[in-house]
Amino acid sequence: MARTSRNRTKIKPELKTGEKSNLNRHWRTLFLDCLAETSNVSEAARRTGINPSRAYKVRREEAEFARQWHRALVEGYEHLELELLARLRAGEAKDGPRRDNASALRLLALHRDTMAREHARRRNTDAATARAIIDAKLEELRQRRRQLGRS
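Structure (tokenized):
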């Protein structure tokens, strides 16, 4: 039986600058896992040992990778939202690492439309309803942050 090979994106040498010489052939999976964990393309590329330009080029040229990228980012924003909510509810240890909750809130607000579309798709609702749900969550997070600031 003939094996079907997937078309792979050709990467120019200049897009390989700084990459590991023994690049793991499963770099896509590792990159997407790191992207979901960090919501940061540069950090995911660094952890994977690739040049970020490689990831962007593959995303432009491979529709399935672009869909997986989107899902990884949505997962990352969901993680950030839950992490921020946990920090705001429980507070932060005085001797622990300081987290920039304001920046986390700004990042979530910036990607509110992306998340609204994703929530709408999952719940089979319209984007306006999903946006309203996300706005309410963001406002709740802001209120908790203000309350913690007063204590």
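Residues 15-61 form one domain. Confidence is low (pLDDT under 50) at residues 1-5.
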